[in-house]
Amino acid sequence: MKTLRLVLMKKWFDLIASGKKSEEYRDISPYWTSRLHGKVFDAVEFRNGYGAKSPSVTREFKSCTIGMGYEALGAPGRVVYIISLGKIIEAKNYQPVKDATPDALLGAVVEKQRKDAMSGDIFEQFGNMDK
Length: 131
Description:
Blueprint: E1 3-7, H1 10-18, E2 23-26, H2 30-36, E3 43-47, E4 56-68, E5 79-92, H3 103-118, H4 122-126
Parallel strand pairs: 1-3
Antiparallel strand pairs: 2-5, 3-4, 4-5
């Protein structure tokens, strides 16, 4: 199984491990382009730390596209690589957080950003990216 391995801060790790966050973002840079562009993976292993006993969760890899992510889910407000995730395959050394974030608040923020993104051309909203 070809696995992409990523280390995350606890906040984002808990959201991914709980299944509440279904995409992860990475900058469009030479480093991430060499790791992601044109590559297909079976799974993404997320770790919260570098130690042997650090919590980890493995999720199904669905796709990697380029676009605007949702700021409520950690996107930086510019065009990024969007790694779309599927079901949870495995979790190690992880104790689920009772509530990583209020679902209603997160859902409302994400829905507003989706509506805003659909309301016009992405380049009109964010300007010319070539500048």
